[in-house]
Specification:
The chain contains 23 helices and 21 strands. Strands 6, 7, 8, 9, 10 and 11 form a six-stranded antiparallel beta sheet that branches. A four-stranded antiparallel beta sheet has the order 16-3-20-19. A hairpin with a 3-residue loop joins β13 and β14. The longest helix has about 35 residues, at about 180-215. It is α+β, with helices and mostly antiparallel strands. The chain has four domains: about 15-210, no CATH class; about 235-265 and about 585-685, Roll (Chitinase A, domain 3), CATH 3.10.50; about 275-285 and about 490-580, Chitinase A, domain 3 (Roll), CATH 3.10.50; about 290-485, Chitinase A, domain 3 (Roll). The protein is globular and about 105 Å long.
């Protein structure tokens, strides 16, 4: 018994030490951030780092106000996130590593900026606050080493080792060869780091709280104003004279007018950050004729081998082909969970059946049914044709009855669905609804479908949507496991290499002096010129392309970059803009559009005023059609002074005027942003803020406060980041990010 007891105690002690060893590096990663991530990086990325002549463990991927971000730490976080997504999704899925890299970059930059701002603010963190976290509310990463396999947190042992770190020596097996003094000293150093981390974290929390408090101040007058807006309403008849009535060719805009507008509104065209411009061509990654030929050979080979193999041996052959062509196997699932087009082929096949080739959505498949099991849920496979009620229910019923008669007489149901069904989502696939259980469809439809025998035509069945003619194809409660081989015409290695050779040749010829546009036209490529963009704007969804533009001088041509879904891109830096006023040529089109809109409104004005003069004094706005038959009177109810007019859209000028013009009369023309309006407010109720009691005031205040609070941190952090010195070197380490 004593031997067993000592053995148990030794195991418990070693268990704690083992857990401490496991979590200690994790803690240090959180606090000191010293993990070496290059061991899990992709080979391509490591080679890029080594090619730069840098040690992956010390290479710098970015600098934030002088503070370095190490490649090793950054890449470690990326790989952890990739693995986490892969485990969560399950199976072999494509992970958006570029998106993850961007997310981790944003996170690390934010961590550094917050820490720097918190240190600058020097928020005091009391000893009591730290003890509260350490002793009363330890976070998960501190609980972890003291939590057993059953998930029980041993608080007493945790408190003991936090408050008396030297007691850790009691858990060291004297026969383990581990120096208890060294273990205790390391644990003490870890505790110091833990305390530093917690202090920094609390400081950042204080900073966030301050930002939210300052940025979410809501004045009583603003609360009262918002109360009036939300609780007032108006009803209005209105007519719109849109600038779309005036054709562009009726407007003349001179260079002098453009220049005058530019001078008068120059401050509106101030550029705060540097900008660059690229020109690029795309080499599409499209399969070659040889790729198509290779596809046909693969297809013919599989088909021939299956046809020449006796049925009893096809199962074994399919397993070999499944491995050779990297097919997939799927576990037991109901027919409703299988893609409808695949389910229709698998539903009636016995176990071991091999079928194909089957063409679905531009791909060719071979299937094998691996397993069938009876399930608990009955499913129906059906198609339908929907005839909506329209304006005449009897007429709709008669049409549905005639279509049902034609279907029962043998006409192709799918063709009838394509011709007549008003459920356009299913009509395109012949009315096919796939497999469904009870509870999926409206009650009348469900009862008719589940009561019918497979192969029958049912209906018309009336539902809230109209009349349904239903074709019941099959019923089953089986769950099916299956495997598939998928074939398609894909770009092969030889074709891909050829496209990259052509792209590299394009780059080299431009570098040797051939004009970019001339070469592009010669190769029947379309050269595209971007607008000026800032360093935070991805080009073709690629931040690597953006960084190339900002890290190279004008005239530099990029290496070919593969960008999904475009293809291989070759780009050249063609222009730059430094902070300051944008040149007139950069904003000319914007100015022309503003002047054109203003001139169109000017041209509309005489006609609208003429109509108003003739209409003035009329009892209702509807009489306008006697004067101008080209217009339509619209009515909007429950209009708020919030810039939105029902039936038209956004125009804050109009909604503001609705609350200013007299009720009942036809108001003078209102010049909006893109139209003139004639208004007649028929009813208006304006809320009195004095009627708002304290309860409603507090409720509205809290809602406005929470709304402001939700955006306060975003605006503060955006401003902080914009004025920080952030150097992004990721383009040196990754092909895409």
């Amino acid at each position: 018994m004593h031997v067993e007891a000592r053995s148990t105690l030794r195991e418990r002690r070693m268990g704690v030490i083992s857990r401490m060893r496991e979590v200690s590096p994790y803690l240090l990663a959180l606090f000191a951030l010293v993990f070496i991530g290059f061991m899990v990086a992709t080979d391509a990325d490591i080679q890029r780092v080594l090619h730069l002549g840098e040690n992956p463990a010390t290479a710098v991927i970015g600098v934030v106000n002088g503070e370095k971000i190490r490649y090793a730490e950054f890449n470690e976080r990326v790989q952890q996130q990739v693995e986490q997504q892969r485990k969560s999704a399950g199976g072999d899925i494509e992970i958006d590593e570029a998106g993850i890299r961007q997310s981790i970059w944003d996170m690390m930059v934010e961590e550094i900026l917050l820490r720097q701002a918190a240190e600058k603010a020097a928020f005091p963190v009391t000893r009591e606050e730290l003890l509260d976290v350490l002793l009363d509310n330890p976070p998960d990463y501190l609980r972890q080493p003291f939590t057993d396999s059953a998930g029980v947190f041993h608080r007493e042992r945790y408190i003991e080792l936090i408050t008396q770190p030297e007691r850790l020596a009691d858990y060291v097996d004297p026969n383990s060869g581990v120096d208890p003094v060294e273990v205790v000293e390391r644990w003490k150093r870890d505790l110091v780091r833990i305390e530093d981390f917690l202090r920094q974290n609390r400081t950042r929390e204080h900073l966030r709280s301050l930002v939210n408090a300052v940025g979410s101040i809501v004045s009583p007058s603003y609360v009262r104003r918002q109360y009036v807006v939300e609780n007032s309403s108006a009803e209005v008849h209105y007519v719109v004279y849109s600038i779309d009535r005036i054709r562009d060719r009726e407007i003349t805009i001179s260079d002098a007018e453009i220049e005058a507008y530019y001078r008068q509104h120059r401050d509106a065209f101030r550029q705060k950050k540097p900008a660059r411009k690229l020109k690029y061509v795309i080499f599409p990654l499209e399969p070659t004729s040889q790729d198509s030929a290779n596809f046909r050979k693969r297809l013919a080979r599989i088909r021939q081998e299956l046809e020449q193999t006796p049925p009893e041996r096809r199962d074994s052959l399919f397993s070999l082909l499944l491995s050779e062509y990297q097919g997939r196997s799927y576990g037991l699932s109901s027919l409703a969970a299988i893609e409808p087009q695949k389910a229709q082929y698998l539903a009636s096949q016995p176990v071991g059946a091999v079928l194909g080739p089957v063409e679905l959505a531009g791909k060719t498949y071979f299937f094998r049914v691996d397993q069938r099991q009876p399930g608990d849920t009955l499913l129906v496979h059906a198609s339908h044709i929907l005839i909506g009620f329209g304006g005449n229910k009897d007429s709709a019923r008669a049409q549905a009855q005639e279509i049902a008669r034609r279907a029962r007489s043998g006409e192709n149901f799918a063709e009838l669905a394509r011709l007549y069904s008003q459920d356009r989502a299913t009509a395109e696939r012949g009315g096919d609804l796939g497999w469904f259980p009870r509870g999926r469809m409206v009650k009348p439809f469900e009862e008719a479908a589940f009561a019918a025998q497979p192969g029958s035509i049912v209906g018309p069945v009336e539902s809230p949507f109209g009349f349904h003619i239903i074709a019941v194809h099959a019923k089953s409660a089986d769950r099916i496991a299956y495997s598939e081989i998928e074939l398609s015409v894909t770009l092969g290695t030889a074709g891909r290499n050829q496209i990259f050779r052509e792209a590299y040749s394009f780059k080299q010829q431009v570098e040797k002096g051939t004009p970019f546009d001339t070469l592009a036209r010669r190769l029947k490529k379309n050269p595209v010129e971007t607008a000026f963009f800032e360093e935070t704007t991805p080009v073709l969804g690629s931040r690597a392309l953006t960084q190339f533009a900002f890290s190279h001088p004008i005239g530099t041509v990029s290496d070919p970059i593969e960008l999904k879904p475009y293809g291989v891109v070759v780009a050249q830096v063609i222009d730059e803009r430094k902070p300051g006023y944008k040149p007139l040529e950069d904003v000319r089109s914007e100015i022309v559009e503003k002047l054109r809109r203003s001139k169109k409104l000017d041209l509309l004005r005489p006609h609208v005023e003429s109509v108003y003069e003739r209409l003035k004094g009329a009892d209702i706005l509807a009489r306008i059609v006697e004067i101008d038959s080209s217009v339509q009177v619209q009515t909007a109810t429950m209009v708020k002074d919030n810039g939105f007019l029902q039936g038209y859209g956004q125009d804050p000028i109009v909604t503001a005027m609705i609350y200013r013009v007299p009720v009942g009369v036809i108001a003078p023309p209102v010049r909006g942003e893109r139209a003139y309006f004639l208004l007649q407010v028929t009813k208006r109720e304006v809320a009195d803020p004095k009627t708002m009691d304290s309860t409603r005031f507090v409720e509205l205040y809290r809602r406005l406060y929470n709304t402001a609070k939700a955006s306060a941190y975003y605006y503060w952090y955006t401003a902080l980041r914009d004025r920080s010195d952030i150097e992004d070197r990721r383009v040196k380490f990754y092909r895409e990010f």
